[in-house]
Design brief:
This protein is mainly β. The protein folds into two domains: 155 residues, no CATH class; 224 residues, no CATH class. It is 9% helix and 41% strand. The strands form six sheets. The chain has a 15-stranded parallel sheet, with helices on both faces. InterPro entries: NosD_dom (IPR007742), Para_beta_helix_rpt-2 (IPR022441), PbH1 (IPR006626), Pectin_lyas_fold (IPR012334), Pectin_lyase_fold/virulence (IPR011050), SCF-Subunits/Alg-Epimerases (IPR051550).
Length: 453
Amino acid sequence: MIYLLIFILSLAWTGSCSSIVASGDIQEAIDGAIPGDTVMVYAGDYDPFTVDKPLTIQGIGSPSACARIQEPAISIRADGVKLIGFEVVGVPRNQDDKFSYYMDQSSRKPHYALNRPNSGILVNGDDVVIEDLDLQGSEAGILVEGSRNFTVRNSSFVRCERGLLLQECRGGKIEGCSFLECEKYGAYLEGCDGITIEKNEAIENSANGMMLKESSECFISDNEFVGNWNGLFLWNSTLCEIQENRADRNSYYGMVVSSGSNNSIVNNLARNNGGGEFGLLGIGISIQENSSRNLVAGNILEENFNGLDMTRGCRFNLIFCNEFSENSNGLRLDKNENNLVYKNNFKRNLISGYDNASHNFWNATVGNYYDDYSGRDRDGDGTGDDPYWIPKGSSCAVDWRPLMQPAEKVIDPENAWEDLARYATYEPADDLPYKVENQTIMIGKKEPGKWWI
């Protein structure tokens, strides 16, 4: 009886929803619909409209909606909206027109703000899904503010200033989208948490293919960053997983983590970054500006100027099981301390390693494989008996246990973090010419390991 009642109620609810054909005026059809309805929109050119209830807006034959100054082509102001199969023509940035719009009191709408960019689509709702969208020429293609579980898939953003702009969003997915020839960013996320970004392509965007600022716990997988100024850029972001992406032929950086901690950068390909019309010396992956406790493992870094670059105050990062090949500098470390570099393979690089003004560790129980190592392994244990001196930089860094054969690509983060804690133990006080022991100042050494008062 209970199951029968549920079934009857289900049929009643289903029966209450219907499909409505918008004949010329989409807003009129939306105003007449009830939550759960589908509004069918056929090919044609349409004025801006607002969706303020949970509806499916289904485009058939790629209907086109055009934005105006400070008026999105489509405004979504409800939860549970689906928008499928539209073309959207946006409005580029124009400060003079925006100022004139806000000076005209008769046309200004109370829910628009002066600092909001011209957007093709504006989203202020949770659980919104946008699919099969073609959008071009907007200051912000889609602007999403404070939404939960926003999803956009199988859509293209062409020649916008910023293709997709997410602010303070939680959860959701960006999947199967193309970001092409945008003036600044293909996609820009600020203050976002838990966003999944996968199977997208960011190609020939003038600044960054994708930028994540002050975001956390985002999953970035299986994306392509090709021909941008920088491919993927994370700034002050934490606990993100960056895996199985490809950064190829970007003008400067393939991938960057700046002022970020506890991120995982695993199994990515960064190749042939640099050059372009400005002839820049490109970097495959860059960790910089006080970034700490990031895992960089299993990546392939080839044909860059620097394969991997780590600069300025980075500490306790783990660099292992990476393949460095045919770079000018395989790995370049500058002004860092307590980073562990081991189980990497350096092949056919002009210079395998550079360690400057730093105190890092190039081996644990084993070190790295260098194809220019000329030492011997007399006891046959697989590690060289002679140390490998890192060729460049002022740190006089040494790998005390260089591998005789390339390391296998076995990524075991748990054991690797234990190795980092065991071996990366440098304290800046170790370099001082004095120390305090039992309230006595010890000011020098007579011989190694012995101090005097």
